[in-house]
Amino acid sequence: MKKLIMVLLTISMSVVSLRAQKSKKEVLKILDQKSETYGDISQQIFDLAEMGYQEHKSAALLQETLKDAGFSIKKGVAGIPTAFVAEYGSGNPVIGILGEYDALPGLSQQAVPEKKSAGAAAGHACGHHLFGTASTAAAITTKEWMVANNIKGTIRFYGTPAEEGGSGKVYMVRAGLFNDVDVALHWHPSSVNSASAGAALANKSAKFRFHGISAHAAAAPEKGRSALDGVEAMNMMVNMMREHIPSDVRIHYVITNGGKAPNVVPDFAEVYYYARHGNRDVVIDIFDRIVKAAEGAALGTGTTVDYEMIGGTHELLPNLTLQKLMHDNLTEVGGFDYTEEEKEFADKIAKTLGKEKADLSLAKNVLPYKTEAKAFASTDVGDVSFAVPTVGMGSATWVPGTPAHSWQAVAAGGTSIGKKGMMVAAKTMTLTAIDLFKDHKLIEKAKQEFEERRGPNFKYIPLLGDREPALDYRK
Ligand SMILES: [Zn+2]
Question: CB within 5 A of ion ligand 1: which residues?
Answer without folding.
Answer: 126
